[in-house]
């Protein structure tokens, strides 16, 4: 009986489809990745041992630099239209006469540190160039003209009925009066809870928290 010859098949695998898939995945991550914009002011925060990431939405970041200048930043990635609500509120209450282009630029503005009188000129600058502008800070030290109070109030109006966090990021060399003025603006808006932004440090050796960490890792 004649034997049946089974045709031999090549063991080589065509890798072309896999290469295509790899490039598609790589392209997706490149296009979808969002890089953190450079901060217009350098703030060296005190250290802490709590590791909690900053929220990306429903939050207000109030920064105080080493020269006691105060800045306002809205964090609202999930609802970018909130930027329009806030800046339209500022425009109407302060009679600034902002143009549609200046209002749109506020969506791309990372941090505001100018008085209301200079806000129109600041928003007229291309958002990519705003980091080069030397901002004098939001006036807060004069209790009769604490303009941060308006930023907080109008942000609360924009997020009415939604949770909203307030974060304070202060430089380690900033002075207490600036911090007190920021807290006063929050208090006058009936906001008595806020979080402090710090730099992450290791737990000090010999502390009770360090002993707990060692016990938990055993």
Which residue ranges are poorly predicted, with pLDDT under 50 across at least 5 consecutive positions? 209-218
Helical element count?
A: 7
The strand order across the widest sheet is 3-2-4-5
The rounded distance between the terminal residues' Cα atoms is 72 Å
Strand content: 5-15%
Largest sheet: 4 strands, mixed
Q: Write the element-wise H/E pattern from the N-terminal end onward.
A: HEEEHHHHEHEEH
Report the strand count: 6
Over the alpha carbons, how many angstroms does the gyration radius reach? 26 Å
What proportion of the residues is helical, as a percent range? 25-40%
Counting helices, strands and paired strands, the structural category is alpha/beta
Shape: elongated
Q: Give the overall pLDDT as a whole number.
A: 82
